[in-house]
Here is the input.
Amino acid sequence: QVQLLESGGGSVQAGGSLRLSCSASGYTYIPDCMGWFRRAPGKQREGVATIDTDGTTVYAGSVKGRFTISKDNAENTLYLQMNSLKSEDTAMYYCTADFLSCPRQWVGYVPGYWGQGTQVTVSS
Here is the structure.
């Protein structure tokens, strides 16, 4: 059973940075697609970024140029570097994994595995 454990969330002022980490375990084959999703209070869950086994990345337009997704296969760890944070980035952030290639569009996409989430709060 795939297990995903996020860390690195916290409170930061607007313009600041945070790096989220996700430690993955419980699988024989590396997931084809890993990513970050988030849910803000009162809003629907949305995709933030995904990364495929070949390193191809997809970002939400709202975070492109500010966030960077990366992974260390040797350490089974996924990262999300978040810079120039805005108050609208406040949300619970979830690490996700799937044994299918990452979709190029996230409409209707629900990853197969989810972590428990880590809270990010950005104050203006």
Summary: The chain has a mean pLDDT of 95.
